[in-house]
Amino acid sequence: GPFPLSHGTTTLGFIFQGGVIAAADTRASAGGLVACPAVHKITPIHSHLVVTSSGSGADCMLWERILIREIRLYQLRHKRRLSIRGTAKLLSFMLHPFKGTDVCVALTLCGWDKDDSLIYVCSDGARLQGDIFSVGSGSPYAYGVLDGSLRWSLSKEEAISLAREAVFRATHRDAYSGNNVDLFHVTRGYKLLHHDFIL
After folding, report:
1. Is residue 171 annotated as a catalytic residue, yes or no?
2. Where, per UniProt, does this protein localize (predicted)?
């Protein structure tokens, strides 16, 4: 992934014919120490959007809260939802003044507008749209699994199974990631699929 690999985490998102899948491990690490074995790295932002987070836990939580507030304000002012692309642009714009500072945030927006959207936004200034992103120290292993098996035509069950397998492989190869897997399926509204799947 386009992010320093020192941050112990594996998050991923991908698009398939049935929507968007977001998955992440749930361990928080501080140095080589497992600080908390159950941290949720996927946050529902709106009925049509979840974000996966990697980087500094406190920074990510703050920016997710800011994003939730801004999306609500936009909807109140304009009587319509802010698009996923609009949300990514807004987040990138708000993060821009912090480029080159210690703010460490990498968020992948996994959402549904008229279509499925997957956009990666980082505090280093990156804003990338794609069909597949994996971020964090376990991401090379996750990409290894996804690159071999990801197809547009996957069924929902196959997509869920693939996401789980990718996080599982990454967390077993990476000392900083691990414990449980969070899984969300996003179409016109998100569904939390697995919150307690023990690795």
Report:
1. no
2. Cytoplasm; Nucleus
